[in-house]
Design goal:
This protein is α+β, with helices and mostly antiparallel strands and 426 residues long. Helices cover 59% and strands 16% of the residues. The protein starts with a helix and ends with a strand.
């Protein structure tokens, strides 16, 4: 290949400024010496410059618009993603009843804020269905709560979006009266919806008060470690917050609620279970006494009910009493005896309260006298004892015992009545 051919091959690159320094220098030296190649180069250069001058300028405005549209698309996607995440968290917090956070009406406030932030309503409202199902599934309630919570999330979401639409409509109004009207209506709807939410899940103030008051009550009333705090929950029926505590009774872990009524009085389920367990154990003790006193032993039931406030602790229950250290045992034993004196026992001769055993009056009084003698011999403490059985005529017969009752008093305390008419029989 001669020099002219080589230079002509390099000319297009040199004209466009793409040739290397060595190639460009070669072309310049050659066209300075070769007339034909110089004319060819000049023609090629003019054509290139003319083409470049006639090339249309890029539409910068259109490019900016396309870039803005692309950025707007990304921004909408980011907004939608953030809205969906916010709605997911709101449904989980409310559905799973996440402690204090569940008392804040996120099911209403989150859709409200999302609609102010995001331009579309349907994705916000529609997201409450799958997220509501998930929130209901994570709750401690049974499966019937899942559709209930889903519908509740949908309704609350729609209300929150509706309130936001009214507020946005008010902001677009030119007249102050119209602006104030729309925004006030939106605020009223939002406030009413939040008040309705509080009636279902409680409110942050009530939650905090219940948390502090119930834990303070437990620390002042019971020995440390007796009750373990679990959570605060709201009772829709009572419209009150309660503290839920765990404890162990008879080797079984159980829960009890403790709360305060509006008048300041305390409702203590643990105390109720404690008293009930103490009464059942004393009833079993009385059954043992009756088995030793009455021959033959009839089928019977025994119930105990306190006639005054019992001052017992878990140490007075059988599950703990027999394992106490000597320094605690003496105190617990005295307390068991003294608190037994507050119990009224009902003894029913029969398999249950509704199935009495039929006994003639003489046999009933004889068995009652035997029970009285055994109570006196054992020096058992009690408030009072009522013994019941059915006579051959179908009437309920009863006698009342106290610590002062003698066998001679039994006939005088004898009563019989028709259970259907509740009228005393002669």
């Amino acid at each position: 290949m001669n020099t002219c051919s080589l230079v002509k091959d390099l000319m297009p690159l040199h004209v466009e400024g793409l040739a290397s320094e060595e190639s460009a220098a070669l072309v310049e030296r050659h066209i300075a010496e070769c007339e034909e190649c110089r004319r060819c180069y000049e023609t090629m250069k003019k054509d290139y410059e003319s083409h470049e001058q006639n090339r249309p300028e890029p539409d910068k405005k259109r490019q900016v618009e396309e870039l803005a549209a692309q950025l707007g698309k990304y921004q909408r996607r980011i907004k939608l993603a953030s809205v969906l995440v916010a709605m997911l968290m709101a449904c989980i917090i409310s559905g799973a009843e996440v402690h204090f956070l569940s008392t804040i009406p996120f099911l209403i406030l989150t859709p409200f804020v999302c609609r102010l932030y995001y331009s579309r309503s349907l994705p916000i409202v529609a997201s409450t269905i799958p997220f509501g199902l998930l929130g209901g599934l994570l709750s401690e309630h049974n499966s019937s709560y899942i559709p209930f919570f889903t519908v509740l999330a949908l309704v609350n979401g729609a209300v929150g979006v509706g309130a936001a639409l009214l507020v946005k409509q008010g902001l677009r109004q030119a007249k102050m009266a119209a602006k104030a009207g729309y925004m006030s209506l939106g605020a009223v709807i939002l406030f009413a919806a939040c008040a309705g939410y509080f009636s279902f899940w409680g409110n942050p103030v009530g939650y905090t008060q219940a948390l502090l008051r119930t834990n303070d009550y437990v620390s002042r009333t019971y020995e440390k470690g007796t009750l373990d705090f679990k959570k605060v929950f709201f009772s829709f029926k009572d419209k009150l917050h309660y503290g839920k505590f765990e404890f162990v009774m008879n080797g079984v872990r159980q829960t009890a609620s403790i709360g305060f009524y509006r008048d300041g009085s305390v409702t203590d389920e643990y105390k109720f279970k404690l008293d009930n367990q103490f009464g059942e154990e004393r009833s079993d003790d009385l059954k043992t006494v009756i088995a030793a006193a009455v021959d033959p032993v009839p089928s019977l039931t025994v119930h105990a009910s306190p006639q005054a406030k019992l001052e017992i602790t878990k140490d007075e229950l059988n599950a703990n009493f027999y394992y106490l250290s000597p320094d605690k045992l003496d105190k617990a034993e005295k307390l068991r005896v003294s608190e037994s004196g507050k119990l009224r026992f009902e003894i029913h001769f029969g398999a249950s309260d509704a199935r009495y055993e039929k006994l003639p009056k003489e046999a009933f009084l004889a068995k009652s006298a035997a029970i009285l003698r055994m109570l006196q011999e054992r020096k058992l403490n009690y408030h009072s004892v009522e013994i019941k059985a059915m006579d051959p005529g179908g009437n309920i017969q009863t006698v009342e015992l106290t610590k002062l009752t003698t066998e001679q008093d039994l006939a005088g305390s004898y009563r019989a009545f028709d259970p259907e008419r509740q009228k005393e029989q002669p």
